[in-house]
Amino acid sequence: MGGGTVVLAGAGGPVGFQLAFRLAAEGAEQLLVVPDEARAPRLPGGAALPEAEVVVLGHAPAPDQVDLALDGADTLVIAGISSGDPDPVDLLTAHRFRRIVHLSQIGAGAQGTAAHARRHWRIEEAVRGSGAAWTILRVSVQFGTLIHAVRDDLLRAPAGHGRVAAVSPADVADAATAVLLDERAHAHDGMTYRITGPEALTGEDVARTLSAVTGRPLRYEPMSAVDAYATPVPWVRDLDAWISCCAAVDAGVFEDVDDAVARLAGRPARSFAYWLDDYPGELATLRRGASMG
């Protein structure tokens, strides 16, 4: 990794959380950037990760506040862009980094179908123009997103019959860790990777797998965007972003499978069924037979 402190922006998200633990295990010095200290990754029992300092920054911090908080930082990892996290472009403007690894989104572009794809494109442009060495990992939809729209044994989403090569957050973290810790100097400079799971799933595939794992007769039912706005999913904070992501699934944006996880992490990406077996807590509510609503 070349030494220096790693700034992990979005450390409180599902990928950032896992990435923080991987870097801590390798002895990396980290600044864990979160909008609220309660969201910072911690060891069981609440102890801080070794060599990790928590930095609380809101969505629009002052430039001098950023530069002071990130003093001595060498590498920036953009692992999340939730509404509470600081805008990564503000971090790039306020502090000069030697290296940047950006976990972007598949389909990123000025005219991207998904709202986050357009936002990630703006960040990608800033990363490429920063003067730092950069690597971009364009990530598919994560597995957790596939199960949270289940309500009363029905998976409903405005995704039509599109396919999505969804991916485990652990695989994203492993791929990013491999890039960051690669001992070959500059091996990933200027590279853009597509991070996907091993198979392209339809809504019917997702429901079938969930039924097999939970023993409940789950089924998938496509819905229109109009219906989605009328019956919002409780866990979704940004309904526009979720509906536009589903539209991207329907349009085939996420359907292509890539082997980047295997090439970077040295092992194949985990399947949806494997991930469910690995993270049974994700299905706790479904196994109890309770409604997700």
From TrEMBL:
Which residues are in the NAD(P)-binding domain? 10-182
SUPFAM superfamilies, A to Z? NAD(P)-binding Rossmann-fold domains
Task: Cite the Gene3D superfamilies for this sequence.
Answer: NAD(P)-binding Rossmann-like Domain, UDP-galactose 4-epimerase, domain 1
Give one Pfam family. Answer: NAD_binding_10
What is the official name of this protein in its record? Uncharacterized protein YbjT (DUF2867 family)
